[in-house]
Amino acid sequence: MRKLRRGVLFVSFLTLLFFVRPGGAEERKRMPDTMQAESFSSPFDVPHGHAAKTPFSPKVTPDFRGIRISAPETAKIAADGTVTIPVSMTTQFSAAYLMKFDVLTHHMSVVAVNGKTGASLTSTLQEDDAAAPPPEDREGDPAELESTIFESYLTFDLARFLQFPNAAAVYHVHVTLENHQSNVVTIKIQKPGK
Fold this sequence. Notes:
This protein is mostly beta strands. It has helices at residues 95-98, 142-147, and strands at residues 8-11, 16-21, 66-70, 74-76, 86-94, 108-114, 120-124, 149-157, 169-177, 180-181, 185-190.
C-alpha cells in the first residue's frame, strides 16, 4: 500500500491553503479533518481573502473534483451604496491538474447573471496587485501526482470583483476554471431598509 503523504502547500494569491486528501482506491476512506473550521457566526464575518475552512465552506466528497461555492441568500446595499457579498469556495483537484497553473485563482472566472434581465457580470478572481509566485520545480511521478488530491478553501467578497449596479436584483452566480463549473448560487441584493 502506497504511503499517504500529508502536507500543506501554500500557493500565492491570498495564500490558498490546500489539504491533502487520500487518492488511491485502497485509501478512499475520508481522512479526519485535522484543521478545525474557524468560528464565525455569519458569512459576513469572514474577511475577504480568508483562505481556511469556515462553517460556510461547501463540503465535498473524497471523489469530487471541481469547485463548489456557497453564499448568503441575501445581501443588503449599505447606506453609502456599497454591498458586501461573501462567497465561500471549496476546490478539490489532483496535484497533476494543479501543476498547470501558476496561481489557481488567476485562471478562475466568476459570473453573476441578473435573473430578470439576463445581463451578466464577469471577472477573474485576481486581485489587482497579485503577483505570480516564483517558478518552482514541477516534476514528479505522474501516477503519484494524479492520486494526490488537494482541497482548498477561500472566502471572497464578490463585490470586490464585480461592479454591481446600485439596485435591488437577483443574481445567479457561479465560478469556472477551464471546463470545471461550480454549482450555481442565487443571491438577492436588497436596498437598505428592506
